[in-house]
Amino acid sequence: MANIIRRDPFAIDDLFDDLMRGFFVRPLPVPAEAQALGQIKVDVKEDDKAYTVHADLPGVKKEDIHVNIEGNTVSISAEVKKESEQKEGEKVLRSERYYGKVYRSFTLGHDIDEAAAKAKFENGVLDLTLPKKVTSTTKRLTIE
Asked: What is the second-level CATH architecture of the domain 12-131?
């Protein structure tokens, strides 16, 4: 038979118990691989004609990386899939899988020429060459 217990939400003892219930629980450690999945480290350099972007994406396949350019906004997204398994004989002692999506977006000072932009991925580093769009110069007209 089910027991029904009447509980007063404003009772001091219950409030203190609720507050302290999870205080001494030790959180599970998060592996370094899982922490690194949530970040894309980016270096951006600029010269007169273009921006150069280096983005660290270790363990990501080239097919899983997407780069979008809209005006002066650059977005990098990637799907991360990591699997590791430790066996001892025929027995699996530990098996871990990390799946997720990472995303990074930033705005540059000039519009990007999408047609001339180039991307290269090698050894876990995405290299983007983003030429600046040639702005039309304004011409001042003299009034006759």
From this structure: Sandwich (2.60)
